[in-house]
């Protein structure tokens, strides 16, 4: 067995460029000293390159103890030529962690030069026969032959990080990625971009048809298997969309349902006689959807030359796809997340709506869902403060009322800048605007990190923040403990927090009334301050700042 130095594994997320959903994790070996390239170079000098590479791949699987997220494991191309030895290590590691081969993608990494083509293809075929998925890494800045991509048709091709340096400014690089996107669309290969650093890169990749991205913009690699929690706010094109947008039930259309034993001729008649019908759902005796027939694809199959003679009397299910389903009480955002990764011919198919026991109750058309989400985004964008791009009080009003109705304990805080008028009078309005924008960015970043935090810009220098109880301290550390300056002059802020136990306040209006004296108290404390109070209590705790002495 090869000698492998002591190392750990980090796991970098691979995210959807369309919905931000976590798709997979790539295992990255991290030696105690040096880099993984140093480890492989030393192994090559010792004549143990393949043996060490196999140990690293097996170690990555063993380190990924959670099997909930698909895993990508890096393997050198030369190691693929000895896939029988690779499998002898990978399969026991999979059994030990309870992971299936279908949930593991073997990323084949350069160099490819000097390898026997037949040996490489045989190795890849063996891995596929065992159920593994295949990806090619380093496309665009390595020696990966395009002919190998055509011969193998891997599940994924990853664009090298060097290419991303030319996005979006280099038209030639953009054209190259667009061409690879056409290749992927014709073959079913998924493209992934490595090394995404900036938001304009991510936006362009999505437009160019690159569905998967990883890099520092999304998340840094973390040692150990991280836990991912779906955010309550999903961001599409940079504009926050609230926890739903329109419900699926608001966009539902009647479904045309037929028995799963229906013939192609019977379905053809429905489509011909009813041009407005976009799909037919084939159901079982319990009205549960079994198959879905898209109008365009079905008619193309059965009305071509000899199509009627070949298919008319045969079951229509021969031309059907498994139905994509969604609950009627789901939000449109949940629907887009559920089908957002669908590519190719089915990307725009109708989605079958089901009730609580799985019976078909209608369909939704994705074009209408996207239009509904877009309208919700426009409504929210109108309400954003033009200076900070934060929503107004409405978002906090709804959040407080929602938490009161649910019986949650929470904290509502009021933040403002001390002597802000003086800042404008002495430093100018532009400097004051810069300060407000900086505070707004800090609060936006905080809300992105903390799942229970909602932020609103009331106007001027006033902000409202709703947090879970255990997040209030983080809020104070972020805005009170941070030094704020305007043209090298220090500026202080005041934070007043009201801890609302279950049943202690009855509405947003009552909470805002109780906050007012706390804000006044915070203003009386020297330096940047944080005071905390509770409904029905006269006690006010000064947690930050210097208590001023009363005048003699």
From TrEMBL:
Gene3D superfamilies attached to this UniProt entry: 3.30.70.270, EAL domain
SUPFAM superfamilies: CBS-domain pair, EAL domain-like, Nucleotide cyclase
UniProt GO molecular function: cyclic-guanylate-specific phosphodiesterase activity
Domain (GGDEF): residue spans on this chain: 408-535
Transmembrane region(s): none
Domain of life: Bacteria
Positions of the EAL domain: 1-235
Pfam families tied to this protein: EAL (PF00563), GGDEF (PF00990)
Name this polypeptide is given: Diguanylate cyclase/phosphodiesterase
Species of provenance: Actinophytocola oryzae
Species lineage: Bacteria, Bacillati, Actinomycetota, Actinomycetes, Pseudonocardiales
